[in-house]
């Protein structure tokens, strides 16, 4: 007869069967009941078998005591002498299966944790690899940036030295000319620290201008002027470098004679036809 609910007696029977402590007769009767398809007893037995399995794995192995062999022999002899009871006949319906349905085995806690532990280890390894790669990449980019800055600085220094070398060569060529004049320009009120020197090759009608000026504001540029008693003639633009030093070579026009002075003003970008800003540096020929 199949059961509809769990009782303490059925739980005890299932527990004793799982532990292997039922007598042979009691065990055979319980097995026949399970084969009849009692789902309640089958479920109880599955739970107790899982518990017994966990307990067996948790306990440390130990050798049985010597007297256990004698007790087992007495138990076997006693049960062999007991008369066997015939199992009650059971009429089975054709549509019912006599197989015992057991629930799937319950995985142990360790087996359930192993996939998560493996995933955690893999995640940590990936995080470490990514962190190392990012650190190495940032270090490499910083090194490349420093190299680029050093290369740019070296290019600027080479360009500055090339311009200085060209300026000195132009000045030397004027100094060796048959007729030389020098015009010294001094800074005025807008920029008293400004200064310039013009090397004038009179015979070759050429000026070599060397000026030291403050950085021009955005949208402004320095412009050189030939100043005569009646006119102010543009002599071109002067573009200082980052240090404020500017150098240019200009031709002296015949329309600029007689020359009264040379002047440098700050003008809008691109220059002006006539001076529009205050004079930054001014000098008269000697």
Characterize this entry briefly.
By secondary structure, this protein is α+β, with helices and mostly antiparallel strands. It is built from five helices and eight strands; from the N terminus they run H-H-H-H-H-E-E-E-E-E-E-E-E.
What does this structure look like?
The chain has 286 residues and is an alpha+beta fold. The chain has helices spanning 8-19, 24-35, 39-58, 67-81, 109-175, and strands at 180-187, 195-201, 206-212, 220-227, 232-238, 245-251, 261-268, 279-283. It is built from five helices and eight strands, in the order αααααββββββββ. Helix 1 packs across helix 3. The longest helix has 67 residues, at 109-175.
Give the SSE layout.
Elements: H1 8-19, H2 24-35, H3 39-58, H4 67-81, H5 109-175, E1 180-187, E2 195-201, E3 206-212, E4 220-227, E5 232-238, E6 245-251, E7 261-268, E8 279-283
Antiparallel strand pairs: 1-2, 1-8, 2-3, 3-6, 4-5, 4-7, 7-8
Helix pairs in contact: 1-3
